[in-house]
Q: What sequence folds into this?
């Protein structure tokens, strides 16, 4: 069977299974299964697919048809142009989160500084920022040791040397300023989904770690905790930037203003939803 025929069949199967991007899913899985580039598949798609590659591809397509995320099946997802290793122990990096990186970069005006990424997961946010600001020191923290190990692996693979990672339950392993750790920017994509949100039973989210998705108080508990605690770890004038759900921006703005942050504003993601809210200390 040719590569083209296999891809067409797989795309049809994934479409019937409810994949939002069946053709792209099929092509990514074939790249991984056959070890061939997308360009090769487009150019030589009429070639016969070897039996072992066919079998491997079929197994991946079957898993995807059952809902398994492509990023977990291939063990990789691109974020900010960086190829990142992924794992079922961490969230899958998503394009909307690049809004948080953009917001942080826009406020990193000084040639040097320190940024803290809380709940770093794969290290996506920390490594994206570090790749753009090599003179800054970036720290990524996560409560899960396996996530910290994965983020450190990604840093080594990408040869990003200005980012370090540590195990911490939010700020627990850090010492508060002025005698301890002080950061010019603190960012986080914390859990912000309510426990009864129907989206938890849909798509890739079904397979991602619930602890990285769900927060108490209708999804606001961790956001409010970070808003309160971050003040002790920010430099004067330092920024706190938080990703949140598309309906939570008014509540996050209100909480930041109540806590004494200034210049509070929300930033829209690519879909036009208020995805990131931030403010700074005086």
A:
């Amino acid at each position: 069977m040719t590569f083209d025929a296999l891809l067409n069949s797989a795309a049809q199967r994934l479409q019937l299974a409810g994949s939002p991007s069946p053709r792209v899913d099929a092509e990514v899985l074939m790249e991984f299964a056959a070890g061939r580039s997308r360009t090769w598949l487009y150019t030589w798609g009429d070639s016969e697919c070897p039996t072992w590659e066919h079998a491997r591809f079929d197994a991946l397509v079957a898993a995807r048809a059952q809902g398994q995320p492509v990023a977990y099946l291939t063990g990789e997802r691109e974020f900010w142009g960086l190829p990142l290793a992924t794992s079922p122990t961490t969230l899958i990096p998503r394009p909307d989160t690049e809004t948080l990186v953009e917001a942080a970069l826009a406020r990193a005006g000084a040639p040097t500084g320190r940024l803290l990424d809380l709940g770093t997961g794969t290290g996506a946010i920390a490594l994206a920022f570090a790749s753009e600001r090599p003179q800054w020191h970036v720290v990524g923290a996560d409560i899960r040791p396996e996530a910290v190990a994965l983020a450190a692996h990604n840093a080594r693979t990408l040869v990003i040397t200005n980012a370090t990672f540590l195990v911490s339950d939010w700020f627990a392993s850090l010492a508060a300023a002025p005698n301890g750790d002080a950061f010019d920017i603190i960012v986080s994509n914390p859990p912000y989904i309510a426990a009864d949100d129907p989206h938890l039973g849909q798509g890739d989210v079904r397979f991602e770690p619930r602890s990285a998705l769900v927060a108490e108080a209708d999804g606001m508990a961790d956001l409010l905790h970070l808003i309160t605690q971050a003040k002790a770890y920010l430099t004067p004038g330092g920024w706190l930037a938080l990703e949140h759900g598309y309906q939570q921006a008014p509540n996050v703005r209100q909480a930041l203003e109540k806590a004494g942050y200034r210049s509070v504003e929300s930033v829209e993601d690519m879909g036009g939803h208020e995805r990131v809210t931030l403010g700074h200390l005086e």
Notes: The longest strand covers residues 234-243. The chain is about 35% helix and 20% strand. The chain has two domains: 3-68, 77-280.
